[in-house]
Each structure stands twice: as C-alpha cells, then as structure tokens.
Amino acid sequence: MTHNRFPTRICLSKNIIRRNSVMSHYTHLTIFERARIFLLHEKGYSLRKIASDIHRSPATVSRELNRNSEEKYSPSQANRKYATRRKNCGRRKILNNPRVWAIVRRLI
User: Per-domain residue ranges for the chain?
Assistant: First the structure.
C-alpha cells in the first residue's frame, strides 16, 4: 500500500486546491488560487487572511500581487505572465546560435 506524503484535496465549491500543511516541495500558484487571491483582495482582505485561505505564505501572496499588478490585479493576466516567464526561463542552448555553431564546427 502506497501513501501519498502530500495529499491534495480539491474543493470544487471554492475552486481552490488544498494541500497538507506540511509543504516540502514548492508548487506554483494555480489559476484557481490566483482567482481566489483576486476575489479576496478585491473584498479588502489582508494578505495574511488571503494566505491563510489558500494555504500559502503571506510572502507568496504579496509577491504575486506585486509581480502581476499593473493598475489592478487580474488572475488571467497573471497566469499568462507566469506562462511567458516560465517559457523564457532556463538555460539557453548556445548551439542554436548559427555563429557559435559555425565556430564549433570549424574547431572540430
């Protein structure tokens, strides 16, 4: 019998994902969590109350609002920005550059 160390429970009525309080692995915010941040932030809830509701650190909520707010926070726009940042992150393959590839071929 296998046990999941970090069980996930989806609460469809609130459209949020709840995890065990012990988090050893970082997980990115979901669109549901972003929507919940938006709703609670619009209602005037504090960062700590929002963080408690979605079972995240207040620092995570603060970074999310600061990173993705231009005039007003939008969960769909924040998710698009996240996808773009994720696509552009990581190590660049230097051999995709034709000039570098030509130099490597000449040296080999």
Answer: 8-107
